[in-house]
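Now for one record:
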Amino acid sequence: MTKTPSLHSDVLIVGGGMAGGLLALLLADQGLAVRVLDGAAEPVWPEGAPALRVSTLNEASYWLLRHTGAWQYLNPQRVQPYRHMQVWDHDGTGEVNFDVTEAGAEALGWLLENDHIVAALYRAGTDRECLDWQCGAQVAAVRRTPEGWRVSAGDGDYSADLVVGADGARSLVREAAGIPGGPRDTGHHALVATIETERPHGGCARQVFLESGPLALLPLFNTAADTEEGTGDGRHCSIVWSGWPGFIEERLTEDDDAFARALNQATAEVLGPARPVSPRRVFPIQERHASSYRAPGLALVGDAAHVIHPLAGQGINLGFLDVGVLAEELARVHQAGLPLADPAALARYERRRRADNLLMQQAMRGFKMLFERREPALRWLRNTGLGMVDKLPPARRLFIEHALGRAGDLPQLARPCQSIMEP
């Protein structure tokens, strides 16, 4: 997708993942000349068994993708909406259940493979004449010169009015700008895998809090095995099992039978006996939060700016909101004829996003600490709190609003648009 021969662009985005790809579409729709330097190979459409790396998208993220047209390129057979949520404490009686009917929404969220989202964004980018998305463009250096930022990738030395770091937790852009960004060890590792269950998941996202850490069972789309067996009901889930490093390492190294026993004990066989049907992968969970989301001529979005514990599945949703707000602020200055790197605009972006992201990070940290403590008083508090959320309408509404991504200072493109709503 090479459309802009000049080495200078209005906006240069380092990183072509989900956040960087969405930002590229939103800015190209404003008529800006946008270049993406993506170190990965050209995205391909996923096929066959579900990939291990998946994301839960909330309503705000859904609308951002719909507004850019990327949603229409997704393969609907690989998109799994979930219309129910179940959260419970393994050691107590506290439990919360939500249903889409009380949310007034199409779904509580959607489960998609990360590669699937990136492929749809890339495909939508081919429709934008002013977007130059360069794959395999590994960035070698980011440096500030008297004339502005320069980014070296391959044989090119690129410049732009505004450089955006969307290059992940170990952001080279953040490092080049001298912005501290962690990391902070959470004391948890996460194991991801695909499992098959005896009973269909019923489009319900489940999470159980264990002594070792939270375990999420996220519903996946119908697989070939479901179709071949004639059930038509999804019996595959993606699991994210967070816990102490030694505990997770034990789960990684044991054989499939032993792992299945541990999994079934942890979930109390909520969907009947389950077994792994994919390799298991483990990664350490580290929090990061950049001390600033901006520098002169530069901004950070997504994991380059913040990384939170995955227990609520909000990481990419926060990143998409970063992108939506930044695009909104850049549209204002562009329409006003001001420089894209206008310091006031970047300050507004940071003010609108940093506090909300920090609050979510601290909330996830608090949840983790609360549920890993075993003192009787804290166990009583957890279960009482879950029971109150389940029974009190105001608490339920607040929980649902946050789960759907309706709370806070939303950019306009993260809201429904009547002209593109489903009939």
Q: What stands out?
A: Residues 343-372 form the longest helix (30 residues). The longest strand covers residues 184-197. The CA atoms of residues 72 and 393 lie 35 Å apart. Confidence is low (pLDDT under 50) at residues 418-423.
